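WARN retry 2 of 3 for item q-0093 after timeout on previous attempt; input resubmitted unchanged.
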Amino acid sequence: MPDVTIYAYVAMLRRRWRIVLLATVLGAAAAIGLTALMPRVYVATTTMFVRGVPGAGVAADYQAAQFAASRAKSYSVMMGNPDVLSGIISDLNLQMGPGELLSRLTVENPIDTVLINVTARGTNPDQAQAISVAAADNLSTLIVRLESAGVAGGKSPIDVQVAVPAPKPTSPSSPNLVLNVAVGLMLGLALGSISALVVESRPRPIEEDDGTNGSDDTDGAGRSGRGGRRAHPPSPSPQGS
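OK item q-0093 returned
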């Protein structure tokens, strides 16, 4: 394929704009169609607050806050506890196993905070919201139970409360129609440009010479181009006697 400069490329696109336009439109249409076939996923997040129960002493509150921050870092992995998962399934009467439920849950502890974000993904807004709230409730129950084990009096030094219940999502988080259409447009534009370049670089048929262009007035035999008559030299003038 010959080298193509930017100016030649622009000129080629102007000549073959119909191919580029058609491919771009088809790319966008394919993206819309595929997006319509993709399952909708809704996301809801519940924010939990971890509080340390202060003891006696002047610095009790500070020590309790530091203790809560240090303990909150380890609570994210507890979502995989069988008691938490089975509790969520039982509370919501979910028709799924613990493994599938766990794959729909994400637990995060923002750095240097006493917050825990429990994010749930569902096939509809109500399911996502319900799973997130139930997961937070069951996780907090497990945390308090584990923290109170072996403590004198059975009182947990940690208290976990729901700070922000998960709101019902109003739109799916995926698929992203705008993003998919943008990708479809770019792919269609690229494919159309390549197709136009391929069409442009095809060898064109050589036009045969029909003998009407570029012919001399007189052929090799000395014939005139008009009527094919032979040209005669002028007769010498008679000399006087």
